[in-house]
Amino acid sequence: MMSDLLRASSIGTPRVRLDGPDKVRGLAPYAYEHPVEDPLHLFPLCSTIALGRVTAIDATAALALDGVVRVITHENALRLADTEDGELAILQDDRIGYRGQYLGAVLADTPETARHAADLVVVTAEAAPHDADFRHDHPAVREPEGGGDDIDTGDLEAALAAAEIVVDQRYSTPLEHNNPMEPHTTIARWDGEQLTLWTSTQGVHPARQTLAPMLGIDPEQLRIISPHVGGGFGSKGLPHADMMLTALAAHAVPGRAVKHAVTRQHMFALTGYRPATSQRFRIGARADGTITAFGLEAVSSSSRTKEFPEVAIKPSRQMYAGEHRRITQRVLPLDIAVPSWMRAPGEAPGMVGLEIMMDELAEACGLDPIELRVRNEPERDPDTGMPFNRRRLIDCLHEGAARFGWAQRDPRPRARREGGWLIGTGVASATYPASRQPGSKARIRHEAGVYEVGIGAADLGTGTWTALTQVAADALEVDPDRIALRIGDTALPNATVAGGSTGLASWSAAVLAAADTFRREHGTAPADGVEAIGEAAENPAEKQFAMHSYGAQFAQVRVQEETGEIRLDRMLGVFSAGRIINPRTARSQLLGGMTMGVGMALHEKGELDPRFGHVVNHDLAEYHVPVNADIRSLEVHWLDEQDPQAGPLGARGIGEIGTVGAAAAIANAIHHATGARVRDLPGFGSDLLAR
Amino acid sequence: MGHPVHLVIDGQPHDLTVDPRTTLLDALRDHLGNMSPKKGCDHGQCGACTVLVDGRRLNSCLLLAVSLDGAEVLTSDGLAPDGELSAMHAAFLEQDAFQCGYCTPGQICSATGVLREAADGRPSVVTDDHVDDQPIELTEDEIRERMSGNLCRCGAYVNIVAAVQQAAGASTASEGTDR
Amino acid sequence: MRPFDYARADDPAGAVAAVAERPDATYLAGGTNLVDHLKLGITAPDLLVDLGRLDLADIEELPDGGLRVGAMVRNSDLAADPRVRRDHPMLSRALLSGASGQLRNAATTGGNLLQRTRCVYFQDPTTPCNKRAPGSGCSALGGYTRYHAILGASDACIATHPSDMAVALAALDATVVVLGAGGETRIPVTQLHRLPGDEPERDTVLEHGDLITAVELPPPASGTRSTYRKIRDRASFAFALVSVAAVLDLDPDAAQPTVRSARIALGGVAHAPWRARRAEQLLAGAPATRESFRRAAAAELEQARPVEGNEFKVTMARGVMVSVLAELAGLGEENEEPHDE
């Protein structure tokens, strides 16, 4: 079961990013930047109603414009072979399911002309009454498609009735938008029956697997190229409608490349986002803090065009003990844009409710919040009954407490004041599943002392170019300078998606398998041109252990009493994630996750106006992500460890866990500073004034 | 409808004929194939398109190319003549001041402008009201404020501050100050 | 973005003539707001007259000790000018509170005054907006109002003016120099911007073709202190929820420090920079105490009519006014329990 760990030579060293020199100069090609001959530019036509149907599209004026080549609509677009996927099956009929939905596209010889021509296309639509108002008590709330996977053990109501302490509170998280800095972008060109997409995706092979059957072509007829990805955070994990639109539009102009970069405004409706959640916790405990009753009813918004629930109950399934449990996930489908993955789907919002609730429970019990967590450490996974694999939550909390100076904290709220500022500190746990996806393949080929390692993996800032090179070097026991890594192309062997913190572990398993085969077949002095392929198998440990990473987040905030301004003074995270492959890039991953957590805590909220059905603050001036001035002292630490259950690499993923728990730690710090409990994110300073 | 414009871009003279609607950013990327500045928002809200125009850092997405006749434009690539990385480039690499790299050329142009502005004694909102002609010391707070026009969604801000400070040659990291 | 002609103006009079004769012509200065709006389809001029080569980029000293700021002086240059920093730190601070370093390097003095609201519905041509499409309705009423007005709004429009600089200029009693088809006129900044009434499409009193050529700052009154404070949803690069520009003239010789006069303007709360005249009246001659400042702020905000979603601005505006005045009066931070009004 436990693997022999890969001997570390390059891994574990803080190698500077191999793609760095090109990236700082701006030379590494992102999707839009691949040179193509004489491209056409696409500007989309989008619905301005939330529900209904298109009754007419008049493109006469647009087509009369000099430079306009085509206007594609549902009346002339390629028929798809499969229209099951409501998000991707665009331009197939006259139905409108959400505001902002693609209704067509204009192709022109310059971006300016395409945009102007799109304004000249007259789309007439018939609106039907829509529902875009998320409420947890909406009558249409129901189990998610495929079941709610409820937990119901023991007798929750009786245990609550018998509990000495009860916390019964509702928490909410808003729509949050991934907003990678590189917009979703695709260049598409059909050459005969062969389609090439230069795009920005977290998985070239998974995207091909989704798109090719819909387009009615074999996977081999679709090549997807994506060597550099300008951020994704989940929103480039699954292909979205923009990729399909570009492919459909290019089909109308065979041999001609079509370029489409989604505008920032359109991204808010068309490229996925984190849906809203409402989480009602009903927790019963003994006076000593031991949880006896654990009730959670979570509801997530979703889209009637395609369902995606934000499964906020995920972390509550395994985080803490509690014999009597009822945990349910529900969903409310609305006439709104299609949500999707955003960094730590489930865990990030789920740990907002859970970890603020734990702070409230600690206060109710008169316990230190770290001690409360110690007292509710489960012996086995309450969900599966399996033993935990290296659950080091308490180690992280204690290590963080020591580094942060938690012992000096006066637990009373509003106890610390400097000038006009109230100062407080807070803590929260972090968790994320540690899994490895089977099925990735890597090919190693030797030529003149250089090992070319090919796998269709992705680097969306995660450091894949560098870390996977280090893994390959150690797998082959050569210097990293002798590795030539190639990623981000379906012409390379299959790779699973860069998502769910599974990327590096899954791809490394393939590289290790390939290296093993290569050395077995070709020895240490291989001839030129020899190669070997290896495939990642399932990790058998996942069937015997509950595999998760853990962490602890600490935050200090100050709140100005007269103005309500909130400033984050400092933040510190300690994580247990197995072996760290590249400390330099790993630290950045975790810092970045925490920074996104700051946005979640204090800034980010998609303002969905139910009257119109779309997010109205749909740009980067009105939807606030943290700026440099919001982030002051951030510290990242990790436990020095290796995890043989995770495979020979000994590493679990680190892409998401930095975000998880960060928002709750800040919300808890606001309470400690001011005495006001933040239960609805983001915590705006103005809400502290209005109370 | 085409207007002639002469621009010096990364040291090279270019004579272009542009649609008046064409922004400097689109002129660079779509007409000249200079992909160093990036399009993140196209509305001056993210800073990914930042270039130096006659030495000043500007959002190239909000400048009409037609209005810039005679201007000298430097992109992050142009800050590395003949491929020789600048001190700012090197600091970004060493401090790992980026992840995905998409905002990075804009960050580097912006940071290069910041060094110049501070050396010229130009204040930011966190600078004391006190007026003198001295260069302004780039404390962490000064850098954070001055670099706030460049969003980084990967969240590399902590490392960006370290990189700018390294490039500025600051030997000691000054404390953050309370407002 | 529909096609437009482009012309470079050689002198202000020529610029005015070129724009005045074409109803859909407009000026191009820094472009930070205009190019944004061209792309969004909020405005669709058929001619841009570029002011970039006009000789309007200097800051000159006036005989009375004031400053004449050319309309094309960039925000960053105005903020960095040693005379401005020395005489009007409030103005420098307001400028530096706005936008980003890059935008301040492009944005001009005239353009900043004329920037348009950040109301999300104004910026989205797919939603009704009386300011953008007169008579279509106000989507902000009943919608997302966090950045909307609590003072001086109408049933037709609750948008706010987004400028920081204009708030400081209002508190400074600066004057705008305007060249129009009929010659030069001078307008106090406090009278430049309109309240929306039933013509929200008109942000200012200017007529088509009018060109702001300069802003004149009065000489600083000796002994006054001024500052600018902006409250926003993130620490930098965000529009104001509420901002306060204040000039305080204290009589230090009185038995207890007394306010001789105060000039206060609020940002983020109205369709125009909001001069807090009621508060100013109450403060004249009042002791320089937190109690006076609270009373004055409360009196000013009595007129506030928030809508659902921006009620917090009333409390916030009071709090910021008191905090800023206390800072200018040199009062220490309050150490008593915070008061909930």
TrEMBL record, chain B:
Pathway where this protein functions? Alkaloid degradation; nicotine degradation
Q: Mention one GO molecular function.
A: metal ion binding
Question: Where does the secretion signal sit in this chain?
Answer: none
Q: Which InterPro entries match?
A: 2Fe-2S-bd (IPR002888), 2Fe-2S-bd_dom_sf (IPR036884), 2Fe-2S_ferredoxin-like_sf (IPR036010), 2Fe-2S_ferredoxin-type (IPR001041), 2Fe2S_fd_BS (IPR006058), Aldehyde_Oxdr_Iron-Sulfur (IPR052914), Beta-grasp_dom_sf (IPR012675)
Q: Keywords on this record?
A: 2Fe-2S, Iron, Iron-sulfur, Metal-binding, Oxidoreductase
Q: Which PROSITE patterns match?
A: 2FE2S_FER_1, 2FE2S_FER_2
2Fe-2S ferredoxin-type domain: residues covered: 3-79
Give the PANTHER family listed for this entry.
Answer: OXIDOREDUCTASE WITH IRON-SULFUR SUBUNIT, OXIDOREDUCTASE, IRON-SULPHUR BINDING SUBUNIT-RELATED-RELATED
Protein name from the UniProt record: (2Fe-2S)-binding protein
TrEMBL record, chain C:
State the PROSITE patterns in the record: FAD_PCMH
Q: Which InterPro entries match?
A: CO_DH_flav_C, CO_DH_flav_C_dom_sf, Diverse_Substr_Oxidored, FAD-bd_PCMH, FAD-bd_PCMH-like_sf, FAD-bd_PCMH_sub1, FAD-bd_PCMH_sub2, Mopterin_DH_FAD-bd
Q: Does Oxidoreductase appear among the keywords?
A: yes
FAD-binding PCMH-type domain location, by residue? 1-222
Q: Which GO terms describe its molecular function?
A: FAD binding; oxidoreductase activity
In terms of Pfam families, this protein maps to: CO_deh_flav_C, FAD_binding_5
Which UniProt keywords are given for this protein, alphabetically ordered?
Oxidoreductase
SMART domains with a match to the protein in the record: CO_deh_flav_C
Give the matching PANTHER family: OXIDOREDUCTASE (PTHR42659:SF1), XANTHINE DEHYDROGENASE SUBUNIT C-RELATED (PTHR42659)
This chain's protein is named Xanthine dehydrogenase family protein subunit M
Q: Which organism is it from?
A: Brachybacterium paraconglomeratum
